[in-house]
Design a protein that fits this description.
The chain has about 220 residues and is mainly alpha-helical. It is about 40% helix and about 10% strand. The strands form two sheets. The protein has a two-stranded parallel ribbon. Helix 4 (about 130-145) packs across helix 8 (about 205-210) and helix 5 (about 155-165) runs antiparallel to helix 6 (about 170-180). The chain starts with about 30 loop residues before the first strand and ends in a 5-residue tail after the last helix.
């Protein structure tokens, strides 16, 4: 299926995915949802879900929600790692179970396609608890050059997010998550990836080795 125009802020685009004519008459039976990037995404997302259910018979929805930041800091960190050799966060010495986007995709695939609906929430966590100092050290090893973790205040971090182009409300949310991580909110482990997919989640060392080209 080719990409189609879709905008959470424009309800006239909500039917676009369902207009595609599949070659063998297939229909969309499950939808993977990524939240709208505004302060209150629920009303718009609920309107789309109602349309998909009532008009097109979609019965399964899988929603991705955030726990905290992921390796690469949504590509903000990836740019500073590549150009400056630095990772900027307000996480301090927080321990975080970094998870690969590939592992998230594997869990989502099973939730979307398994014959029996999962009908539950999964907190998808990585296989090890690491600080950003640990991440910097691992990147230093895999990239062969010095990478430093720069510890920012909450206000400094918010300013960087806003300067990058994030809306103020989203910048505040991201800083709040990083501040919560300092108090131990991300210091936890589980076996959700193994439970759902039958495979161990990706370690950061493996992720860094496989992805190092994007930082060089």
């Amino acid at each position: 299926m080719p990409a189609v125009g879709f905008d959470w802020n424009d309800s006239s685009t909500f039917e676009n995915p369902f207009q595609y004519q599949f070659p063998h008459g297939e229909t969309i039976r499950a939808v993977y949802l990524v939240a709208a990037g505004n302060a209150d995404p629920a009303p718009k997302m609920n309107a789309f879900i109602d349309l998909a259910r009532q008009k097109y018979g979609v019965k399964r929805f899988v929603l991705i929600a955030g726990s905290s930041t992921e390796p690469g800091e949504r590509h903000i960190g990836r740019k500073t790692i590549k150009l400056e050799g630095k990772i900027y966060t307000a996480c301090g010495d927080a321990k975080i179970p970094f998870i690969s986007a590939t592992d998230i995709a594997h869990v989502a695939f099973r939730a979307l396609t398994d014959a029996r609906p999962h009908n539950c929430d999964y907190r998808i966590l990585g296989p090890e608890l690491l600080t950003y100092d640990d991440i910097a050290a691992k990147l230093t090893k895999h990239l062969g050059r010095k990478i430093d973790h720069v510890k920012l205040s909450d206000e400094e971090r918010k300013r960087r997010f806003v300067d990058f182009g994030l809306p103020n409300h989203y910048a505040q949310l991201m800083v709040k998550l990083e501040a919560l991580s300092r108090s131990g909110s991300e210091n936890r482990m589980n076996d959700a990836v193994q439970q759902v997919t039958g495979r161990e989640p990706t370690t950061f060392d493996r992720f860094a080795e496989e992805s190092k080209g994007s930082w060089q």
